[in-house]
Design brief:
5-stranded parallel sheet; serine acetyltransferase, domain 1; alpha/beta; 8 helices; UDP N-Acetylglucosamine Acyltransferase, domain 1
Length: about 325
């Protein structure tokens, strides 16, 4: 049996450290952070989202006592915590996305002040955010006979977690906060299996029944009172390329879904097309053309065949 000394082990570890510290091995994929600049923290952003959810739905994501006197104390504490956390993460997102040229101490001070302002503006919009999310809870409750109460919807339904994260992220997008909104919605994607890009525009009374596998692309526009089922894809059909063959960023490439539309499980709707108001899209349907209002699109009627003695189609 070969004897390995402590000296051999130490040498192996030193060689690993040397190899892992070579900039060329990670420089092409890792962000070059300046000394003293914060980086976004997944742990802090997760805590931030939970605190915002507790503000929006008191008692469901924390330990808030819904006493008329105590509630103001809890809201004050949570708002202070959210302001500090969000200011810190907005600043980190701004530093991460900042042009590396021309950076100086004054720019850092300006970014810090701007981050605090954006955090305050976000908190100022929370009452309206709560109002819109309440319509999403209503849509889920009234659209599902299995729901025994709105509280059950908030506690149990993954769509509420995903939609609340989307609406938090989208409000930050509206405030021109970089990176942090995408981190928030991708955390919800990992948590629920529902993928909603924070840049998408979604109206009130929105719900996703079951939800797993649903994808909503960045340039989607979804109206009011829209219901999706699991596995629905609102995606892009193709990507326009520039003269170098690279995808052009930011062009509208996802569907527009008008008011009062229902899209059933596993339907795939691709490209910058419009699904008209009041339409119903059946399950497992592939749509790449505009649908006029009140359309009903379904598969061909299924065939019913008998199977006996191992015979099949």
């Amino acid at each position: 049996m070969t004897t390995i000394s402590d000296k051999n082990i130490s040498e192996m570890l030193r060689n690993a450290v040397e190899g892992l510290s070579v900039t060329a091995s990670y420089g092409s994929v890792c962000h070059e952070n300046r000394a003293g600049e914060p980086l976004p923290s997944g742990e802090k952003i997760s805590a931030l989202v939970n605190k915002v959810r507790e503000i929006l739905f008191p008692g469901y994501f924390g330990n808030t006592t819904l006493d008329p006197i105590a509630i103001k104390y809890y809201m004050g504490v949570y708002v202070d915590e959210v302001f500090d956390l969000l200011s810190d993460q907005i600043l980190a997102g701004m530093c991460f996305s900042c042009d590396r040229k021309g950076h100086n101490q004054q720019m850092m001070l300006d970014h810090t002040q701007m981050a605090r302002l954006k955090a305050a503006e976000f908190i100022g919009s929370l009452p309206e955010l709560r109002r819109v999310l309440a319509t999403d809870v209503d849509a889920a409750f009234y659209g599902d006979p299995a729901a025994m109460g709105k509280g059950e919807v908030i506690f149990c339904y993954p769509a509420i977690r995903a939609i609340s994260s989307y609406r938090i992220g989208h409000r930050l997008v509206e405030l021109n906060v970089p990176l942090i909104p995408r981190i928030i919605t991708e955390m919800a994607h990992s948590e629920t299996g529902i993928d909603i890009h924070p840049n998408a525009q979604i109206g009130h009374h929105f719900t996703i029944d079951h939800g797993t596998g649903t994808v909503i692309g960045a340039t989607c526009i979804i109206g009011n009172n829209v219901k999706l089922y699991q596995g629905v894809t609102l995606g892009a059909k193709s990507f326009p390329l520039d003269e170098n063959g690279n995808p052009i960023k930011g062009v509208p490439r996802h569907p527009i879904i008008e008011d009062d539309v229902i899209i059933y499980a596993q339907a795939t709707i691709l490209g910058r097309i419009t699904v008209g108001k009041g339409s119903v899209v059946g399950g497992n349907v592939w749509v790449t053309n505009d649908l006029p209002p009140n359309s009903k699109v379904v598969q061909f009627k299924a065939r019913s065949l008998n199977f006996s003695d191992g015979a099949g189609i």
